[in-house]
Structure formats: structure tokens, C-alpha cells
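[retry 2/3] EB domain-containing protein: previous attempt timed out, resubmitting with same input.
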Amino acid sequence: MRGFDILPQEIELYQPCRSSFDCLVHIPHSHCDWDKRVCTCQPYHVTFNNTMCLPASLLGFGCILDSQCRMKVPNSHCVNGLCDCESDHIPLRRDKCLPPAKLDDYCLNDRQCHMASSYSYCKYIIPRVYGKCKCPLGYLVTDEGKCLPHLGSECEKHQDCEEVTPDSFCQRSGDTAYCECRPGFESSSNKMKCQPILQIG
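[retry 2/3] EB domain-containing protein: success.
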């Protein structure tokens, strides 16, 4: 009689089932999909080799598959057995991977702005909640939406200074570095350019 058909000794995912117990006995975190009458993984679990249901993971938790991470945290993947954000995103708590934020985009922290423009920062509209990416006072905003330092502004590399002010460079002083005129040049009175030092005599 069909009502007493015997199920196979070992059940895999997507094979026929009569109840969730039939699936669970062989595959933890599985159940019987009543519409299709086959074993599938429970919500927030992903299929692995049709023999396992792996739990979805948050950032910093264990994983085998990228899909375990992405199920709970978009733009994440599995790296060395742990869920982490993709290289062009930054983590926020354990449940978000934030994309780069350009100037005037909404942001949740400074790092999100730095990814799009290294000198920009998140100017909070609601403190410690959200804001918009802005350039610090005294920095130039380029046509490409980048913040670049003027003379006397903090800098990271020579080309950033020189792009705004020819004949300037990034001079380290203690723990910080500032844009200064190269040897043989001096700052103009308005500090907008470097001009050759006139040799008298």
C-alpha cells in the first residue's frame, strides 16, 4: 500500500519526505517543505552538498560558504572560516557592511568617507548616528569629489600636496605631516602657491 511506502535509510536534501521528522533524523536544521514534499533547509540556513544545512552567520562568526554570510549581511563573504566584509566595504557592528560614501553622501562613520576620499570625514547631523561626508576646513574639493590639502594642511603623500599647490610636498613633523613648499620655494602671502625664493645680490 502506498501509505506505507518505506523511505530510504539515508535522506538527502530535495528528496521526498512525509514529515519534518523524516528530514531531521538525517539532516539537522532541515524540514519537510509541505508544498513540494521534499526535504529543505530551515529558514536562515544554506544548503551544503545536499547533505547539510549550515546556519547563516554574522560578521566575525564561523562559516564555510559565502552564502552563509550574505544571507544575514549583504556585501560580506567567508574569509579563512569567518564572515567578513568585502574589500570595498567596512564593518559596522556585526550586521552591516557599509559601502564607500562620497562627499555629501550620508555616512555612519569617518571610515566610510575615507574609502572614497582619504581626507574627508563624517560631519554628523545627529551626533553619533549619521551625517554627511565633508572636507575639512581649508581643503580643496576637486571636480572628482576628492578632498586635497592646501599649504599648511595635514597630508599623507607628496602628490596630494603637489596636485593642489605645485612645488609643495608632504613634510613630516613629529607624528603628523603638513603640506609645505619645497626647498628653494616659499609660500606666497595668501598661502595659495609656492614661489621661488629670490636670491638677492
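[retry 2/3] EB domain-containing protein: The CA atoms of residues 56 and 68 lie 4 Å apart.
[retry 2/3] clearing retry counter.
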